[in-house]
Amino acid sequence: MPKFNCNIGFIPVSCDFIENLMPAANGAYVKVYLLALSLAAERREMSSSEIARKLNLLESDVVNAFDYWDKLGALKYDKENVLFGDAAAAENEQRETPKKSMDEIAEEMTNNRALADLCTLSQEILGKPLRNRDIETLYWFYDELGLSPEVIAMLLEYCVSKDKRSMNYIEKVAVSWHKNGIISIDAADKFITDEKEKNGYFSSLKKLFGIDGRNFSKTEETYLKKWRDEYGMDENMVGLAYEYCVMQTNKLSFPYMNSIIERWVQNGVKTVEQAEKDHEDFKNKNRHNNLNVFDDDSVDYDELEKIMRDKM
Most CB within 10 Å of its CB: which of 80, 151, 178, 294? Predict the structure, then answer.
């Protein structure tokens, strides 16, 4: 059961949260954040399922909300604890060295025209004036993470393209780029291109699946990434698997779709035409053997999905 703690006796909602994070967030996620903040202020414990019942949400929505706010830096979530404010900062070990002061940065910018130009360009990209701590963070990207001014500008444009202008969020992305070796212009360009293709893939399937008002869960994303990156299945192939899934289960089931796609991979099926023929052959073969997986009403797909979620 998660423990909530932020070491305060009242419920503060930061201006950064209200102005930069809340507008783009799912309304259910905002409800979860505010309730969690009140629980933290009172040092109370409440499970995800209890929060879901209290807010009339699905438990998966609560977990997804914590993951969402954790990615944006609004809180720290690790399944056992939900931390805000100073409590979260104490757990944050991303920085091995402190940021330099504004006096030190100003002196550096005097000798480095590219850094001075970066501040002007950053304000244009973010659409707002930079505060001193924003400038300190940008310089930290350059000085500590080894990102060039050009790569930092690409980083900012990437975050803004996702409608994320919070410096907390941008810093998390910068640290991720650094850890994954995305420090050159070519590496950043390749990453951004791959992300656009992935997002297009996700968006197309989200529309096909009729998912509205929420993002894919982590488990769902794991399936999609495996189908796209490991198995090379395009939207049409996944769409066909979805069609067969709904015909049998009357619902969207990622584990069931995965069983179809994995069989295609094992049989070397790569096109829609091959998949349709394989499906008919499979049905005929198993009908003859009285063992038709795709028409077996005895399979508990809810239980199968729970087992697969736990394994993922």
Answer: 151
CB neighbour burial string for 73-112, b if at least 16 within 10 angstroms, e if fewer: bbbbbeeebbbbbebbeeeeeeeeeebbeeeebeeebeee
pLDDT at residue 298, rounded to an integer: 45
Domain contains 191 = no
Would you say 136 and 100 are in contact if contact means Cβ atoms under 8 Å apart? yes
Residue bearing the bigger pLDDT, 293 or 206 = 206
CA-wise closest residue to 68 among 34, 21, 15: 21
Q: Looking at the structure, tell me whether residues 10 and 84 fall in a common domain.
A: yes
Residue 21: give its domain's CATH number. 1.10.10
Contacts 24+ apart (CB under 8 A), 243-251: 244/279, 244/294, 248/294, 248/295, 249/301, 251/301
Check residues 11 and 69 and name the one with the higher pLDDT.
Answer: 69
Contact 62, 32 (CB under 8 A): yes
Q: Same domain for 229 and 307? A: yes
- Does residue 190 lie in a domain region? no
CA distances (Å), 45 to each of 4, 5, 52, 215, 290, in order?
A: 6, 9, 14, 27, 52
Count the domains in the chain. 3
Instruction: Give the domain range for residue 25.
Output: 3-91
